[in-house]
């Protein structure tokens, strides 16, 4: 019996991905040990924040770093840092900002919902959101012409949630930011390359610690030293209710330090998904294919097309029954309206693909 079952929760098989709603990642034993050790001891947290920044810098190639409770908190804190800096009166005024540059420019196709609204996170940090262009088409001029004396930063969302076509590239955003003398913040929450965007010239980059890094509920901001100092300063203001504890920081740093040494499991995961599709190939009304991640990462999911005319059930029906069971099977359902169910191999524990196959067959046999 899992620790969650002891409290009356059902067992969960996560075939959805590194999803916050399902607990993001199951950490490695060494990370769990670090969490436990830190929780049983004391530390000067201000010293720990600075020490953590040095580790983040060494891994990402940035000048400095700041740990956070997650990418959403990182977004709010990063925005607050470019508006308030280290000035205490401004820090204490966030999110109410007047008389200082506070406009954050974002492409309209990046104003997404990731489980909450990205524009709300920006607003919590004191930013006045300025959406430019159209949802499926943004010109460079849309961005450049929106910059004025009230602009605090440009904001770019690197995510499968964002519109992938018709948006301006990170390179374009960086060139505009440099030309106008304003910072660029990148939300790279679930991205796997922890050095790429700093190397490209981004000023602040936000990552989740509980997704690709496979740490506990946590995150980080990395970037220019002066801006990171301002990020840490926000813990005296808007960052206070979203502060990360000593055990979260140590668990995150442990996961971060082992990140580059983790074995590449993409091929193994691909084979597991091929096996799953093979097991379902003779199931009437189910057609399986392999689909690479929308954002181009080396993630290969099994996509199951459900033909409701044959199965008598829509994809939504299948999803509902999978989630209602015990164990509850949660799949990736962004395209369920098209009759598609995706299986993400990354969070699956050993042998759980076998349970998923059995549950799908059971659901469709009813």
Helix content: 25-40%
Major beta sheet summary:
7 strands, mixed
Please state the structural category: alpha/beta
Distance between the termini: 28 Å
Strand content: 15-25%
Write the H/E string, N to C.
EHHEHHEHEHEHEHEEHHHEEHHEEH
Adjacency order of strands in the biggest sheet: 2-8-7-6-5-3-4
Averaged pLDDT: 94
Q: Which overall shape is indicated by the principal axes computed on the Cα atoms?
A: globular
Low-confidence stretches: none
How many helical elements?
Answer: 14
Number of E-state strands: 12
Nearest-angstrom radius of gyration? 22 Å
Descriptive account of the structure:
- By secondary structure, the protein is of the alpha/beta class.
- It contains 14 helices and twelve strands.
- Strand 3 (103-107), helix 5 (118-124) and strand 4 (128-132) form a beta-alpha-beta unit.
- It is globular, with a radius of gyration of 22 Å.
- The mean pLDDT is 94.
Could you give the topology of this structure?
Layout: E1 12-15, H1 29-39, H2 45-60, E2 64-68, H3 71-84, H4 88-91, E3 103-107, H5 118-124, E4 128-132, H6 140-146, E5 151-157, H7 170-180, E6 184-187, H8 196-200, E7 204-208, E8 219-223, H9 225-233, H10 246-257, H11 266-280, E9 286-292, E10 300-306, H12 308-311, H13 315-324, E11 328-331, E12 340-343, H14 352-365
Parallel strand pairs: 1-11, 3-4, 3-5, 5-6, 6-7
Antiparallel strand pairs: 2-8, 7-8, 9-10, 10-12
